[in-house]
Amino acid sequence: EAGVAQSPRYKIIEKRQSVAFWCNPISGHATLYWYQQILGQGPKLLIQFQNNGVVDDSQLPKDRFSAERLKGVDSTLKIQPAKLEDSAVYLCASSLGTRGTGSPLHFGNGTRLTVT
Amino acid sequence: GEDVEQSLFLSVREGDSSVINCTYTDSSSTYLYWYKQEPGAGLQLLTYIFSNMDMKQDQRLTVLLNKKDKHLSLRIADTQTGDSAIYFCAESKSGANNLFFGTGTRLTVIP
Questions:
Q1: Which among B34, B77, B97, B107 is least surrounded, fewest beta carbons within 10 Å?
Q2: B95–A48: do the CB atoms touch at under 8 Å?
Q3: Mutate to test the interface with B, among A31, A33, A91, A105 (most CBs of B within 10 A)
Q4: What is the pLDDT, as a whole number, of residue B95?
Q5: Residue B48 at interface with chain A, using a CB cutoff of 8 Å
Q6: In angstroms, rounded to a whole number, what is the distance separating the alpha carbons of residues A111 and A12?
Q7: What is the C-alpha radius of gyration for chain B, rounded to an integer number of angstroms?
Q8: What value does the mean pLDDT take over residues B6-32?
Q9: How far is A80 from chain B (nearest CA, A)?
């Protein structure tokens, strides 16, 4: 099966600019996640969708970050305006099952964002 | 608490066994996972274990879970240079599906 697709692979922007990332999950996966991985750290959850509804966005900096999953398939994550500390790899993941089922997360290759 | 802790570095010689350790603090965790991350790539699922198990073996990989001590380990038998990567331990909690990750252990395999 095709894996989780993300684009772009790399993005360099200046602070205060805007940026958007795109994710296409594995076909049939109900749950989609966006994680932020800062260099030298483990990934941290930003937002979790189940179909097209938000399950958890408690760690999303809502003053500058937004995400949507229209039609319950593809998702976009936006940062506006970007700050230097947003430099990180943004990972999208999807899973087949719903909450508490232990359904493994499958990750894309990520988008590496550099804010200068 | 939600902290998952791992040692940062491990070096082993090719052909030896590697043991990567992880401790977690939340006793309600239901599933525990091991992921591998190679440079410039996303996270690849290696294996996972349900909290009512104490061991799982899959080819060269053996996972041991000590729920009393909240300790998880990953043993890689006959370690190869292709095993060089960062290994992340992660936990999911009862009723949830999102994962909490450790900081990762960088495994270096010396030829």
A1: B77
A2: no
A3: A105
A4: 61
A5: yes
A6: 10
A7: 13
A8: 91
A9: 24
Scored b (16 or more CB within 10 A) or e, B17-31 reads ebebbbbbebeebbb
**Does residue B2 register a pLDDT over 60?**
no
Task: Return per-residue pLDDT of chain A as tens, 116 residues.
Answer: 689 999 999 999 999 999 999 999 999 999 999 999 999 899 999 999 998 899 899 999 999 999 999 888 999 999 999 999 999 999 999 998 765 566 889 999 999 999 99
Nearest CA among B90, B76, B78 for reference residue B19: B76
Per-residue model confidence (pLDDT) at position B1: 42
Q: Where are the beta strands (DSSP E) in A14-87?
A: 19-24, 31-37, 44-50, 53-56, 65-68, 75-79
DSSP per-residue string spanning chain B? ---EEE-SEEEEETTS-EEEEEEE--TTEEEEEEEEE-TT--EEEEEEEETT-SEEEETTEEEEEETTTTEEEEEESS--GGG-EEEEEEEEETT----EE---EEEEEE-
Which site among A6, A7, A21, A99 would you substitute to test the B interface, given the most B Cβ atoms closer than 10 Å to its Cβ? A99
